[in-house]
Amino acid sequence: MHKIKKFFSGLLLLFKNPWLMNEILHHGEDNRKIVAKRYKLYAGLPTIDIMHLFPQFEETIEPYAFLEGGSLPTDIALLKALAKKYAVENYLEIGTWRGESVANVASVVKNCYTVNLPDMHILDVTENTDYVKSHKFFSQNLPNVTHIAANSHEFDFDSLKTKFDLIFIDGDHHYDAVKKDTETAFRIVNSEKSIIVWHDCMTSPEHVRWEVLLAILDSCPPDKRKHIYHVSNTMCAVYLNEEVETNELVPYRLPDKYFSIKVTGKKV
């Protein structure tokens, strides 16, 4: 959850212990081998072309801070486009950060819930109060967003008495955490609409984050795995309960599309 602290702590550890780089590389390679052997996915998930999913793909992303640790614009645009295409009424997000993604989805969805660690738990790992205040910055005053201060692995989601049409998992990205959040998501998702999106299943839109992918596949009900895809030009995986046209992920393939971006700055 605390990405800035983890980043600098990691750099310090690597500086003091260069041999750890080999451990990191081997860990990723080990997970890749497990995914390949266990699930026969040698290049990662099959990829949906985002323009095939949304032939008239055009979304306005606001707010968007262009600051550290946020999602790509295409990641947030994907959430909004899915919410509109599938007429989502109840949205759940695990991992709030600045509240950019839920604030964008809230502009097109009636009821939004977002779960994040309580401030006091975040303060246990950082003395930077601005980092704590950054959480839910863009979403805290939105009337259709309910903020839940809790650990997603301990919270009783049944207490919400809601089945969710769209769930976005963007909390702790370690194996055990992704596995637990994924199991929870499949239990509380609306069985009729059933859309789950995982952020950071990629390290970039073209390269797989194998630990996250392994956790998703290990925790997904076996009959659902064939409906999990990577969405092109994003760092997201998506579960859609339907058959879609896909292709194999090929890094550095020549671009077959581009996006038009208009940037307008506004003071908060």
Describe this structure as you would to a colleague:
With 268 residues, the chain is an alpha/beta fold. The chain has a single domain (3-240), classed as Vaccinia Virus protein VP39 (Rossmann fold, 3-Layer(aba) Sandwich), CATH 3.40.50.150. 35% of the residues lie in helices and 15% in strands. The chain has nine helices and ten strands. It has helices spanning 3-16, 20-39, 50-53, 73-85, 100-106, 119-123, 129-134, 175-188, 210-219, and strands spanning 47-48, 90-94, 111-116, 145-149, 166-169, 195-199, 202-204, 207-208, 228-231, 236-240. The strands form two sheets. It has an eight-stranded mixed β-sheet, with helices on both faces. Strand 7 (202-204) and strand 8 (207-208) form a beta hairpin. Helix 4 packs parallel to helix 5 (100-106). The longest helix is centred in the first third of the chain and has 20 residues, at 20-39.
Strand order of the largest sheet: 1-9-10-6-5-2-3-4
For the secondary structure, the number of strands is: 10
**CATH class, please?**
Alpha Beta
Give the C-alpha Rg.
18 Å
Task: Characterize the quaternary organization of these chains.
Answer: single chain
CATH architecture classification: 3-Layer(aba) Sandwich
Taken as a percent bin, the fraction of beta residues is: 15-25%
Tally of helical runs: 9
